Each structure stands twice: as structure tokens, then as C-alpha cells.
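Notes from hallway chat w/ T.B., transcribed later so I don't forget. T.B. wanted the structure written out for a chain they're using in a teaching module, and asked if we could keep both sequence and C-alpha cells in one place. Agreed to drop them here.
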Amino acid sequence: MHRTIFHNPLVSALLRVASLTVLHLTGWRIEGQLPKNSPKCVMIAAPHTSNWDLPYLLMAAFVLRLRVYWMGKQAIFRPPLRGLMMWLGGMPVNREQSTQLVAASVTAIKAADSPLQLVISPEGTRGCTRRWRTGFYYIALGAEVPIVMAYIDFSRKCCGLGPVFWPTGDIERDMATIKAFYAPFKGKHPELFQAD
């Protein structure tokens, strides 16, 4: 995995203070903590209905002292923003072709010798979709790491980390449990979020 802003202690500390200030001034709060026994995990983030989700994700990561990598569509990594997005922990995903993303992610997580939280939106898009993508599930299963359920709730002005979930291999039952956790949360555009 490439080095990111989260690898720089001084910059991360400054951005933590800035994030706490912005969140306080706008009335937002961060909930939860990363369990100490889950330094490497797949973190799913939902609902994802707005471009505003990324700034809140990054602020939460600074406040909680996480070391996140996040996946985003390839279009947001075009020049001149590519370097900045990569430095912020971004990893471009080409949704138009098969890239062995699951296998590559499993290998990268297993090879990492420091904390790593791989953030994935299970919806795979800001638009309304009833069918969640399952790549995050198979990455966690293959890497033998837990899934940490991160959320953003615009109705309560909060984002944070929910429970740790260990995939069992029974994807239908596990996905039903995961979706049930997310059902109460409201994205910036709640009409675009389906968790049933």
C-alpha cells in the first residue's frame, strides 16, 4: 500500500485538531472507537449518498486516529487531483473491467505490517441501489479480518464506528445482519439509501 497523509504524525495531528474544530463548529460529533484487537480490518461506510461523505470520513479518521485507505471510482483520480486523492488514502477502482480487486486487497491486507483500515462503500455508488456489492465481504473473509461497520447519519449529525462483525461464510445471512444495522441511518439524500 502507498504512503498517505495518515503516515505523517505531525500532519495527522494538525488535521485532527482542524477536524475537531470543524465538527464542533458545525454541530457534528464522532461516535465509537476502533477496537484495539482490530488494527487491520475492512471498514464499510454507509449510507453513501453524497460527495460530502468523503470529507466526513476523513475528518472521522483523523479524530479517531485511524490509518484508512478508501476505494473510489477512477474518475475522481484524474489529474490534477490524482496525487491529492492518493495522499488522502484513496485507491482508484475501475468499475468497467475486472481487475482482481478482491484478491489484490486480500494480499495487501495480509502483507501489511502496520494498522490498516480498508474503507469500502457497500453500495458502490451515491445513486439509489437495492443490491449492495459484496467485494468488501470477500476481502474480509479472505484476509481473515473483521468488518467494522462505520456510518454517517445526517439526521443526527454524527458519524462513527459501530460493531465489529466477523464474516461466517454464510453471505446471505451475514448481509441481512449487516443491512439491518444500517437501516436506521439517514444519508444526506435519504431517498437514495436502501438497506432492506
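Follow-up for T.B.: The chain has a mean pLDDT of 90. Might be a good example for the class.
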